[in-house]
Amino acid sequence: MENRDWMYTGRPSQAQITREWMDKTEKFLDHAFKEAKGVRDMFCPCSDCENKNRKTRQVMVQHLCKYGFMPNYTRWVYHGEAYRPREEAMIQQLEAFDGDGGVAGWLGDYADATFVERPTEDEDEEEPEPSAKAFFAMLESAQKHLHEKTIVSQLDAIGRLLRLKSQHNMTRACFDAMMSIIGGLLPEGHHLSGSLYESTRLLRALKMPYE
C-alpha cells in the first residue's frame, strides 16, 4: 500500500495545510465518489464524523479541512478499498472485538497487516482454518449492503443498533420491538436482523463476543 502519512503530516492544524494534502485529498475524493457510482453522499472520514455520518462531497471537503482525517484511517475500507489480512492479525482482532467504532474500527487495524495471496490456478487451495472462515464471513457481512438503496452494511447496522441498546440499557423486548419497526420501514429484501437473538447470533457466528 502506498505511504499515506500525508493525510496527517500535511495538515498539522486547520491553519497549516500543505498543497500536497489538498491535491491528494482531492484524489481521495475522486476515488471514493467514483467507486460509489453516482451516490450523492458518503460516510465522512473526518475526525468529527469518523465514518458515522453521510456528507456530500462539498461538505466532506469542508470537514476534512476543518477537522482533518480521523486517526489511523490509512486503509480506506469505507471508500472503495478491501483487503485480505494475515491470519495472526485476524485472530488478534476477532478476539479483541468489543463492538466500538463501527465496521471501520473492527476491520481497520488489519490495514497494515501483510496480505495473504490467494492460490494461483497451478496451486492447490487449502480449506481455510476456522479463524480465517470467521473473518471472511465477517468481511462478507461488512460488504453486504443493508438494502439496495444504501451503502450501509449489514454488520455496521447491527453493530450500531446493539451499541444503542447498550448505551440506553434497552430490554430485550424493547430492542426486538425497535428492530421490528425499523425492519418494517426498510425496503423488501433488506438484511437487517429481526431480533436481539438473531443479531447476537450473527456476531457469535463471526467469533465476536457480545455482552
Structure description:
The protein has 211 residues and is an all-alpha fold. The protein has 2 domains: 62 residues, no CATH class; 119 residues, no CATH class. The protein contains 9 helices and 2 strands; from the N terminus they run ααββααααααα. It has a two-stranded antiparallel ribbon with strand order 1-2. The longest helix has 18 residues. The radius of gyration is 19 Å and the shape is elongated. About 18% of the residues have low confidence.
Strand count = 2
Helical percent range? 40-55%
**Unreliable residue runs:** 83-102, 108-125
What's the order of the H and E elements? HHEEHHHHHHH
**Overall number of domains:** 2
Q: What distance lies between the first and last C-alpha atoms, to the nearest angstrom? A: 36 Å
| Proportion of residues in β-strands | under 5%
Question: If strands are numbered along the chain, what order do they take across the biggest sheet?
Answer: 1-2
- What is the arithmetic mean of pLDDT? 74
The major pleated sheet works out as: 2 strands, antiparallel
Structural class, from secondary structure content? mainly alpha
Q: Treating each run of at least 4 consecutive H or I residues as one helix, how many helices?
A: 9
Structural shape: elongated
Q: Rg to the nearest angstrom?
A: 19 Å
